[in-house]
Amino acid sequence: MSWADRVSPVVKAIPPSGIRRFFDIVAEMKGVISLGVGEPDFITPWHIRESCVYGLQKGYTAYTSNYGLLELREEIARIMQKDYRISYNPRNEILVTVGVSEALDLAMRAILSPGDEVLIPEPCYVSYKTCATLAGGVAVPVPTTMDTEFRVTVDQLEKLVTPRTKVLLIGYPNNPTGAIMPKQELEAIARFVQKHDLIVIADEIYSLLTYEGKHVCFAGLPEMRDRTILLNGFSKAYAMTGWRIGYALSNPDFIGAMTKIHQYTMLCAPITAQVAAIEALRRGEHSMQEMVAEYNRRRRLMLDGFRQMGLTCFEPKGAFYIFPSIRQTGLTSLQFAEELLKAEKVALVPGDAFGQSGEGFVRCSYASSIANLSEALERIGRFISR
Ligand code: PLP
């Protein structure tokens, strides 16, 4: 038996990430403009980095409580109260995690029994289905379309809900489409969730990156606080991807169950990152808003650029992605991305990396300088008009 034969069949069955596969190729090439990776191009603001340096000088180098530093949990509770008027008890309703990635994994593992179904609106972030599968669940994609601006509807959900459905996983503002959900539509979803007695995992990592009005927090809707495991983090809004820090909020039973796994597998999130996260929440608003304003300028540039090329493009309302349709080129998403890379050295992500309903689209991240984006648009325009 080879070593490969001994890898768990569950893991073997997981398809390789559509994003990674593509960027392994890009890493080998020179002169490529990459609009592929979903990562801020800013460095973490200095005052946040500095707080970490001070923390180290003071000797903050040990494990923290499994739940995370109480001071950080108190700051998270304060922000939730200030921004959305939702109360969470810092002692047992907040868990600090290693990025939203860990929180997502823990939420699935804490809730799912083998065969439980998880409704996942698509196109969606690449980890959702894999986390559900690894936790023993069954991912049930709910395809959304550009006609409904990639917002999931109750009709779409009603068609796919079964007695085995346990969780609805929603992620708005959405990666890869940039879609957001207005309050009224979320309220309809909340009624659906109540009717079928489902648990909601709400990944709101892009909540601060909205360009048309304030984000609506799902846990803030009537009756939804305890039913929802709310996930958020610092990677995107504060340009802190490498610090690996996120958090989960919910009722004490769900947070307790997640913490039980976390205390055996991770112990705690890095203390250095927790100290920096406290600073981000206390004094990071101004620098965060400056970055958001810059993303908004870039969003307009990309939207106008794609529309001028004649591509149908839904106007993204949040996050830092734009998701133009490339159907009129007659190419599949993968062919478009591969041929564009070869011909013009621009890297995008084929839409089908985010599920079947992403076919016919490509995802471009505009977390890149205006100069890079302008050059990329020129190259894409040239490619399309060949
Ligand atoms: N959720 C979404 C929708 C994302 O786009 C990402 C990262 O791209 C994550 C979660 C993971 O975030 P973190 O860096 O906090 O693990």
From TrEMBL:
Any one Pfam family match given in the protein's UniProt record, by short name: Aminotran_1_2
Keywords per UniProt: Aminotransferase, Pyridoxal phosphate, Transferase
SUPFAM superfamilies: PLP-dependent transferases
Cofactor: pyridoxal 5'-phosphate
Keyword Hydrolase in annotation: no
GO molecular function annotations of the record: pyridoxal phosphate binding; transaminase activity
InterPro entries, alphabetized: Aminotransferase_I/II_large, AspAT/PAT-like, NHTrfase_class1_PyrdxlP-BS, PyrdxlP-dep_Trfase, PyrdxlP-dep_Trfase_major, PyrdxlP-dep_Trfase_small
EC numbers, comma separated: 2.6.1.-
GO BP annotations, alphabetical order: amino acid metabolic process
Gene3D superfamilies given in the database record: Aspartate Aminotransferase, domain 1, Type I PLP-dependent aspartate aminotransferase-like (Major domain)
PROSITE patterns, per the entry: AA_TRANSFER_CLASS_1
Leader sequence residues: none
Domain Aminotransferase class I/classII large: 31-380
Entry superkingdom: Bacteria
Family according to the record: Belongs to the class-I pyridoxal-phosphate-dependent aminotransferase family.
Record-given protein name: Aminotransferase
